[in-house]
Amino acid sequence: MTNKLNYILPLLFILFLNISCGSKQVAFFPTSELTYQSYTGDILNVRVLGYGVNENAAIEDAQIRAIETLFFRGIPNSSISKPLVSYNEKTAKQKNPAYFNEFFGSKKFLTYISESIFVGGQKQKVIATKINKKQAKQEMVDALVVAVDVLINVKPLRKDLEQNNIIRKFGF
Prior knowledge:
Elements: H1 2-15, E1 16-18, E2 25-28, E3 34-40, E4 43-52, H2 55-72, H3 89-95, H4 97-105, E5 113-131, E6 136-153, H5 154-163
Antiparallel strand pairs: 1-2, 2-5, 3-4, 4-6, 5-6
Helix pairs in contact: 1-4
């Protein structure tokens, strides 16, 4: 049980947002609601939806979703249509937990985002998983859904992945 918790807790940190003062947390489904805008120089511009209880949380969620899509799914209709890290997100995170915990937990990912432009947002009811101490339950929750243009500096991000032996020099 403890081994499972050691693996699950870092992932929960990335995927979950606090909804109230208690121990309740909400996980919004990790979909790739992302649209390729442009890739000029080393800057990738994508528009992505983020979810949160407030604007800052929703923008950060959008930034994380943009990076994770780049890492594990690739950006459709772009020259980076293959993922930077791997198609198998779970295995990649299991092989390199320290890197991904630091990258997302310490917000290192923000150093590779050159700009985030808030496009708009609105409160909506969305399907999410509510987590209490002992149970997880899917239900509709109120969330702020925002559209954000996220500009990612891909060249130094790729170099960081190479230097930390997450990927080889020319891919995974």
